[in-house]
Amino acid sequence: MSTGCSCKSAQQVAMEEKFSKYVVANYTRLPITAVRGSGSKLWDINGKEYLDLFPGWGVAGLGHCHPRIAEAVARQATKLIHVANNFYIEEQGEFAEMLSTRASGQKCFFCNSGAEAAEGAIKLARLHCQPKYKIITMKDSFHGRTFAAISATGQPAYRKGFEPAVPGFSHATMNDLQSVKELVDDETCAIMLEPVQGEGGVRPATQEFLQGLRKLCDEKGMLLIFDEVQTTPARLGTWFGYQSFGIEPDILTSAKAIAGGMPLGVIMAKSDVAGAMIPGTHASTFGGNSIGCAAGIEAIKVIEDEDLMGNIVRLGGYIDQRISALAESAGIISASRRMGFMVGFELDCPGAAIVDQCRDNGLLINCTHGNILRMLPAFNITEDELSQAFDIIGRVMAK
Predict the structure, then answer these.
(1) For the packed helices 383-398 and 352-360, what is the interaxial angle rounded to 10 degrees?
(2) Does residue 237 sit in the same domain as residue 331?
(3) Is the pLDDT of residue 165 over 70?
(4) 167: cis peptide before it, omega within 30°?
């Protein structure tokens, strides 16, 4: 793996100048211009190679440019790219069937992103339960960047500058059932949470907590909504995250890796709940387009044909071993959390410098909440690639 000099090339400088002039500066960008990817490898404009353990913020669940996904997209592009959703779209129907039959028979509404799926789920809950409209979510949650999504998100920083928030949202404490019960009133229509908080630091819900929420929703006539944008498909070693807990929600949302890297989101709801969404209540122009759904169909086939859920289960123990050894040798890891291929370890110090030095050494990982290192590896990563990654982290921490 090439490391090279961390100084910027003329090509990189030129790219940064172009972005400064023409692109809105709403991202803190890494000093990398990515030009090519394959599996868990990424190459920049200078030819430097990186081992990517946070590919596309978890979108590239099959790695970068999986050949079968690329072929499916290219093949579909020669047949049909996009038509209006008032047509029957063959690929959309097939993809919906594949998702539904791997779940519990839910109906699907397709959109473009996780935030858009969250918005749709919120609308659907209010439609189904009207006139009740309040929704309880969790502190430290993340549901997207649109107005209802940041209002649902249990982190005030994301609402800064955008107040007033959309009314009707309150925030309980994850894994504290009593804190949820204290917020329920006669106007509460739903409880919404990530079964494993991702941006919140890879924090799983407990089995008992989710069971308590399910019982509470059933008793109070409320809906249980799971934000599975990161956990579905397959990331926990099951098709849907809720299957890892054995607690079925009324509505779930998914996006990120659902279509092998193509932009696609989906809301899945039980039939009686989905029935509230009738013509005129909700829509998405690009949602469920032929190319995105063709990629999604192929992604499901790849996950099954290559036994990628088995790979996640097999390598999970190896990740735990490496983190445990790293914690002992480095002395700065205070806690670690993992479910499937959602990995986080908490540091006794800020993590940004470690992420930067890993990048200089050819490894891409993420830091959230200032001191939690986070990885969302591709489902088809190998043990050898994971070994390389932990070797780099170990060398960096040793400094």
Answers:
(1) 120
(2) no
(3) yes
(4) no
